[in-house]
Amino acid sequence: MHNVETFRDLQSEATEWRRYLHQNPELDYRVHNTARFVTEKLASFGINHIETGIAETGIVALIQGEGGEGPTIGLRADMDALPIIEASNKPWSSQIPGKMHACGHDGHTAMLLGAAKYLANKRNFKGSVALIFQPAEEGALGGQRMVQEGIMDRFGISQVFGMHNMPGIEVGKFGICDGPIMAALDEFDILVKGRGGHAAMPHQTIDPIVIAAQIIIGLQTLVSRNTDPIESLVISVTKLNAGEAYNIIPEHAELAGTVRTLSPELRDFAERQILASARGIARGFGADVEFEYRRHDPVTFNHTEGTSLAVNAARKLVGTAFVNDKIKPLMGSEDFAYMLEARPGAFIFLGNGSSAAVHNPKYDFNDEALPYGIGYWVNLVETALAA
Q1: CATH for the stretch 4-181+299-384
Q2: pTM, two decimal places
């Protein structure tokens, strides 16, 4: 087992990779240059088994240990950026207008490449490591597609692990918990169908804007008055569209939003009760609604054995005091959840210091975190696949 000093020598090179990727961000499945860069680096490390084109631009590379026969564990990094105009003002800022690595996937990719270089050189483990470089994490379900295309069976992966940087946690510290660590993500659309007319004669209309406003308020009571306060439910209305003129009450109003939950039961409750609440309010005013509810990422659920392995690997790297193994779950979502549905494992947070929040135009991955991420991956492999 290694402490972080073992990996300081890789920091300079990994920083160069990370900053190159940051300057050249790509979106969703269109990460062609990123995938080419990753594939070339993996080959330069002496890794011979590299498969590309999974989920269009995803990559899986296998490293065989020299400790004999054993299982295969998967390590996953995401590669895609976001459609955001960068405002970090760093020398290595995005060179692609309207695109930036605002979530740190450039850092995630660089850390897994650093671990790949070390593991391919030392091979101090039994069995194999499957390095999973995933496209389209940002809302396009790249993780789900890689699972659907059979990577778990195809590469014999028995456990799978993910990692994400976290602004607000000090560099060199880790956070994890057993069980749910990130929420399920759902979306809904509600169309309020009223009756339009002249704004000066509202009594002759059924005003869908007023009804939509009542629905928005009503949905909040599903959280505050219909859900156990110990449970976690988020219902956020994020879109409201209606009307085009100052003096016309429109026929329709559209509202939409997101739902986050940590349990299947609460997820079912939200889908059922959002419709019931919206329909009841609308019909009380003489209107009606059309409703659509879409389920996306499931809960990111850490399995007990995988969590224990992750905690041990991190503690060996930085010490017990710098690993919080009871971090509160986040209500954000992560499509690594699909991989954890397919195989047991765990997802861990790595400190990014006092940077701007992710998905913020001023965000930048902290290069001081690189040796910690590299070291965590190596320790995890050598713990899970002890020779």
Answers
A1: 3.40.630.10
A2: 0.94
